[in-house]
C-alpha cells in the first residue's frame, strides 16, 4: 500500500516508512497522522525537528529510528559537486531544514520579538541577539550588525552547536557562543534571548540582584536571579560565565552588560526579559517613595513556588538541601527588602567589578532604602 506522498504503509502495523528521508518536519508527521499511522520509521541519522517530535508524542505515534541509513543524497549542485558524499548529504539536509515551514515560522517569530525588544528599548544600535534550537545540532540565530527593529526572515542564519554557520547569507551574531553554551547545558532550552533592558542592567552594573517575594508574577516566571561575572562579550570565557547558573535560573544578569533568558519558545524568553525589567523598574520607583516595601508571606510564597513547579519552570529554591542558601525571600527584617549581592565567583563582595564611584552610588541607594525602613511605624 502507498501512503502519503508515495511512502510505503505497512499493513496491520499502520507504520509509515520514511527511511528515505533525511529530515522529518511538522508537515510530515501531520500527514502521517492523517494517513492513520501508529508509528513511523526513519533512518538512524534522520533529523526530526523538535516540534515534529512533540507532535508525535502528543498523538501517541511511535518514532522508530533504526531504519538502515540507505537514503540517497539529492542531486548535487555545481557548488558542491566535488565534495564527499557525506558532506553533500548533510548540506542537503541543512538546506531543507533551513527552509521548512517550521523554520520559516520561527524566523518570523524571531523578527517579531526583535522588534518588540527594540520598541521597549531593551536593545539599541545592533545590540542584543536571539536564537532558537530547531534541531539536535542546529540553531537559528540573528545576524551581527543588524538592528533588531529592521530584522527580516532573510537575515536569519543557521549554525551548528559549535558555532559554525551552515546556512544563511548574513554572518551570525558574534555572541552566539553564549546561546550555544546554554543549549548544551540545558536540554529543555529551545530559545535564548540576550538584551540590555535599562533597569535590569542597572542591577547588573552594580553587582546586585533584585530581592524576592514582592510581586507574584516575578516569582512564578523568573524568581531567583543569578549574576555572572564579567568577561569580554563574544568570547568563550564570556559564554561560560553563565554555566553555574542556567540549570536553575531561566534568567541571568550579566555583570556590566545586560541579561540573558532561555525558554521553550522565543516569545516566552522575551516575556521573561519583560518581567525582569518591569520588576526592577518598579522596585526603583518604590524605593523613591520613602516608605517600606511590603513583602509576600512565606506561606503565600510557597503557594507561588508550587504554581511554578507545575508549570515546569526552574527555580533554585526547589532544592530543599539548599534551603538556607536559597530562602524564599531576601529579608533581613520582616517586611523589608535586602540589597545584598548574590555571591558570585569573579565579582567582589560589594558589586560587579568594584570602583569607588560605583561603591558610592550603591551606598547612596542603600542608605536611602535603610532610611525608609527606619521611618517605618
TrEMBL record:
<dbReference type="GO" id="GO:0046872">
    <property type="term" value="F:metal ion binding"/>
</dbReference>
<keyword id="KW-0479">Metal-binding</keyword>
<keyword id="KW-0456">Lyase</keyword>
<dbReference type="InterPro" id="IPR050197">
    <property type="entry name" value="Aldolase_class_II_sugar_metab"/>
</dbReference>
<protein>
    <submittedName>
        <fullName>Class II aldolase/adducin family protein</fullName>
    </submittedName>
</protein>
<feature type="domain" description="Class II aldolase/adducin N-terminal">
    <location>
        <begin position="108"/>
        <end position="284"/>
    </location>
</feature>
<dbReference type="GO" id="GO:0005829">
    <property type="term" value="C:cytosol"/>
</dbReference>
<dbReference type="GO" id="GO:0019323">
    <property type="term" value="P:pentose catabolic process"/>
</dbReference>
<dbReference type="InterPro" id="IPR036409">
    <property type="entry name" value="Aldolase_II/adducin_N_sf"/>
</dbReference>
<dbReference type="InterPro" id="IPR001303">
    <property type="entry name" value="Aldolase_II/adducin_N"/>
</dbReference>
<dbReference type="Pfam" id="PF00596">
    <property type="entry name" value="Aldolase_II"/>
</dbReference>
<dbReference type="GO" id="GO:0016832">
    <property type="term" value="F:aldehyde-lyase activity"/>
</dbReference>
